Amino acid sequence: MSPAKKSVKTSVKKSVKPPTSPFYEVRRSKIQGRGAFAILPIRKGKKIDEYWGKPITHEEADRRYDDSEARHHTFLFVLDDDTVLDARYGGNDARFINHSCDPNCETVIEDGHIWIKAMKAITPETELVYDYRFEWQDEYEPDDVRYYACRCGAKKCRGTILRIPVYLRSTIKQWLAGNDVPVPKKPKKGAKKVVKKAVKKAVKKVVKKAVR
Ligand SMILES: C[S@@+](CC[C@H](N)C(=O)[O-])C[C@H]1O[C@@H](n2cnc3c(N)ncnc32)[C@H](O)[C@@H]1O
Ligand SMILES: [Zn+2]
């Protein structure tokens, strides 16, 4: 069976009419291209919209968008290990919600549905943004990180749309500054736990000595 024909297990509706949300409209964005802007006050926790798109397999998504373009631009959203929604087909305005490293929205997946939910109260005219947190791949190099450059403009912008493992944070900062330092050794799984245990033991020893 070719990857593109792999069956897609999803409860996503196949109806042709995607929902529209009364809470925002699409306008030009300072972040990139078009974005979604609140036109009503939105309370914290409100489900603002559902992300719609054609369900396809990961293999099909990789085939459609091979990252060879000069700049990254897709309307993909990973639903689960089997399925990606491609909002280029059958998508609604939720596809225009940009990424920010300091988001006011989050995405929540419930029963095969992707919801855009307010993380805080949002006032009209504010751009709706969520953290895309694109999955980090161990084979990524400086050019890949720069390919996914972030232009959210937030004070705490991490410089890339990618989700960065903690042990690589300073490396990626260097890469983004044009200094292509080598990748540090990946810490072994559970290494953090071992260090924590050792610290706990040392503290216990010191306390024991102090109370003697
Ligand atoms: C789902 S679209 C969002 C709508 C997009 N602005 C448009 O007009 O089509 C996702 C794409 O928007 C761009 N984008 C979104 N947030 C961005 C950000 N913070 N920095 C740079 N580009 C961003 C990237 O090209 C990304 O692949
Ligand atoms: Zn950013």
- Looking at this structure, what is the CATH superfamily of the largest domain? SET domain
The end-to-end distance, rounded to whole angstroms, is 71 Å
What small molecules does this complex bind?
Answer: S-adenosylmethionine, zinc ion
Task: Please give the count of helices.
Answer: 4
What level of helicity do the residues show?
10-25%
Secondary-structure element pattern, one letter each: EEEEHEEEEEEHHH
Q: Rough shape?
A: globular
Q: Which structural class fits the helix and strand makeup? A: alpha+beta
Please indicate the count of domains: 2
Mean pLDDT: 87
**Which CATH architecture of the largest domain would you pick?**
Beta Complex
What is the CA-based Rg, rounded? 21 Å
Describe this structure in words.
The chain has helices at 58-64, 142-147, 169-176, 191-211, and strands spanning 24-28, 34-38, 47-50, 54-57, 76-78, 83-86, 98-99, 105-110, 113-118, 127-130. By secondary structure, the protein is an alpha+beta fold. It has 2 domains: 1-131, Beta Complex (Beta-clip-like); 133-212, no CATH class. It has a 4-stranded mixed β-sheet, with no helix packed on it. A 3-stranded antiparallel β-sheet has the order 3-9-8, with no helix packed on it. The protein starts with 23 loop residues before the first strand and ends with a helix. The protein binds S-adenosylmethionine and zinc ion. The site of zinc ion has 7 residues, from loops.
